[in-house]
Amino acid sequence: MKNPLIKNKQFSLFLYKISTDILILLLTFFCLAFLADSILPGIISDHISFLKFFFIITATTLLVTYLGMKNEITYSPAKSKRKKVLFAFLSIFFVLSLLVSLRKFFPIEITVIGITSIAIVFYFYKTLIHET
Fold this sequence. Notes:
By secondary structure, the protein is mainly alpha-helical. 76% of the residues lie in helices and 0% in strands.
């Protein structure tokens, strides 16, 4: 007879792999929906609430984390130059989205929001990308 713990572990590993794939699909859809809504405001947000979608992504992330800890899955992040290129691309996208969304604000408000956004991007760069 097979051990029921092995079967349970295999099922748990299966759930981990499926939930990881679902998380990747959700994040891809969220990025594309955000891109479409940035280009044509209201095209997506009138039909789908980004807040509800954010909660679904958060719940899926927590599920993946829990199943990863249960299955003792660890990883070491790879150090590559692609992180800097991706960060630069996402920063440019962030700035362009910010410019499109701020077109009806007063100049002083744009300045304050812009400086704050630059500070946040710099903080993320120092925390996530910069190697010490």
